[in-house]
Amino acid sequence: MLHLLNYIGGQLVAPHAGRYLDNPEPATGQVFSRIPDSDAHDVQQAVAAAEAALPAWRLLPAEERGRLLVRISELIERDLERLAQAESQDNGKPVSLARAVDIPRAASNFAFFGTAAQHFASETHFQEGVALNYTVRHPLGVVGCISPWNLPLYLFTWKIAPALAAGCCVVAKPSEITPYTAFLLSELCIEAGLPAGVLNIVHGTGPGAGQPIIEHPAIKAISFTGGTKTGEHIARTAAPMFKKLSLELGGKNPNLIFADCDLDEAVRTSLRSSFANQGQICLCGSRILVERSIYEPFKERFLAGVAGLTVGDPQRAESRQGALVSEAHLQKVMSYIELAQQEGGRLLAGGQRVQLEGRCAGGYFLQPTVFEGLAPDCRTNREEIFGPVVTLAPFDTEEEALTWANGTEYGLAATIWTRDLNRAHRVAHALHSGIVWINTWLHRDLRTPFGGMKNSGVGREGGVEALRFFTEPQSITVKL
Ligand code: TXE
Predict the structure, then answer these.
(1) Which domains does the chain have, with CATH numbers?
(2) Which residues belong to any copy of the Aldehyde dehydrogenase domain (predicted)?
(3) Model's pTM, two decimal places?
(4) pLDDT score of 375
(5) Distance from the CA of 229 to the center of ligand 1, in angstroms?
(6) Ligand 1 pocket: which of 37, 175, 203, 230 to mutate (most atoms <8 Å of CB)?
(7) How big is the CA angle at 12 (ends 7 and 17), to the nearest 5 degrees?
């Protein structure tokens, strides 16, 4: 049994009250680790450590801060296999996915922001003969980073790395459902020589350890990724304290497939965008809209692809679908499968829990599931399911496709498949979506702004946007 510890003031420490939470492995249903059930007292210690570390950290030249972050990136790369195994065990995702996506992207977060800090510049506005105005961007101070369970190390580091690069000290809380790689990261930070208190990792539940972070008056900003309801609660708590907020929330992303697309590529990538990580990525496309003239051929090929997605032990190379993250989440996703049937959806594939043998007999597995025949405004097509469940629907015109696509309260990501360049841009501009991919999905460039419109969030992460978020501009004017 693994016992995880908090990382506070450069030390691995037990929670002050001595309480722990059981952490089950989704593929087996068996508890494999115990994690600190931290409370306000632990958070207070973390904030005090961060405040003590801040004066030296913010004055350290960006190059030196960057060197430490690059060192952490190298250590993540060195331990890629161990971290990939840990992520898979904790989250239920195929180890092949963690090895190819989660862990390399976590390493590149540190490498990118380690060097980005040196390229981050502020503006000068010169008024000829009158005044020189320049902007200083001060680190905000101590900030809070709260992350979810679907891409644990990847999203945790996506927040921490820019905060540290900008000269902030961090109190971070990973999801209590997937805390393992954040714990391993704390060991790597110690090995890298990150000064004590610069990064503090407090484990625990949302109400127990998250709430004291969002309420703490010394924490100047909250960077959060998670459910829309939690985001709303955080905004209600933190906004009246004038904390800066970056909220990356849910999505109900449309995937628009036009008749002139490269059908093979559209099918291949749509299988990934529907079911990668068991559909538990906020960027997954869960509403697949297909131009009527290719609806049947698309459906036929897509369903053939779905039939080939082996659900199995995440440790096995041939498994394309691992376990859902928890029993509670599995039940939630299955309740949506029931709802889709009540709403008149025709089940084209899946729909059932998968019972595996042996080691994984108690795991939370679900068949990849496809529906058609559902109206655009039904709950199945409006609410975030966050599992391996997608709907297919035909459309006749571009306008109709756009009305469907924009018809939810979310606006995170969208995918367009077409060879018509004019249409690609026209449709992209008309989509109410913070991210649009044309003939691709999940393509990543860390310089681009990442985030959603409408109820998918507030603010943007990535590149210069993240460095701006974690700094406060000050305008200084010199009369000439
Ligand atoms: O997320 P929560 P949950 C969606 C998805 C999912 C739903 C709920 O639809 O089914 O959200 O998932 C911390 N103060 N997404 O309940 O609760 C919590 O401990 C401070 C979309 O697991 O939002 C965890 O660290 N923190 C999504 C983090 O918030 C609090 C990814 C996220 O958990 C808190 C995950 C509080 N009061 C779920 N309450 C995406 N956008 O990628 C909870 N937390």
Answers:
(1) 2-249+456-479 (3.40.605.10), 253-445 (3.40.309.10)
(2) 20-475
(3) 0.97
(4) 97
(5) 8
(6) 230
(7) 85
